[in-house]
Amino acid sequence: MKTLPIKQQGMTLIELMIAGIISIIIGLAVMQLMVGSNRASNRIDGMSQVQESARFTLTWLSKQVRHGGFNPDLFGEAIQPVADLCSDATLIPPAANADCNWESTDQAGDRLAIRRTFEDSTANTWDQTTCSGVDLAGAGVASGSVIVDVYWVALDTSGGTDDEYDDVLRCASYLENDAGSDTILGDGVQTIASGIESFQVLYTDPGASNTNASRYVSADLATLADVTAVRIAILTKAFSDAARVDGTRSYLVLDADPITRTDNIPRQILETTVFFPNR
Predict the structure, then answer these.
(1) Residues linked to residue 204 through DSSP beta bridges, in sequence order
(2) What residues form DSSP beta bridges with 260?
(3) What's the rounded Cα separation, in Å, for the pair 127 and 129?
């Protein structure tokens, strides 16, 4: 009987080339999947960072700002909750008499000055300190004095631009003096949060004969003595460009001029309305 030859084992050159091509395609697909997953993770981390910073800042601000007009004396008269507008653009904390509101449509935005009455007999910790936690009685502040807490954004321009990473929200507390020489208290200017690019405030405008707010306007259009609430908006950003947000983006923070960015840094606008219960 004739025996058939056994087929030679192994792969031909063509089969090896096909297998190699398939391996390369699979490898490229896996790499693309890993790159996409890493990019998505960075974007989620960046947005989470922005949102966390925005929520913390607005939560802290809301608790502080709502004390506008506060007087611990139940039988005392509530004072004007916000300070008057600045008459001099050079008045910036820690300068004397810088405890005033400032209206601006630039990127950094407005300055908000909240007025409250200090009484050394109250048990509430917040009533006894500056916005940075310095004890008022220990600083020699007399009971019945008016304290003004000022909040604003300071932009970092160390790199020659106004879009650096160290843009911060700051606060300072002043002792209001009838003689017109208001001085800063405690340890001066305090940084509250980093990554805050813009801070804008609108005020209720009920008019002198009405306590119901019909609209929110800028400080220069409001009757500040009759303000019952403020609307606050901030623009926050992440601390790196790892999220790789592409394209040109514009942000409109209340009545400010549009802020346009072409970098890869994620940003978030967050707003809240704070009522003055003491009004």
Answers:
(1) 216
(2) 250
(3) 6
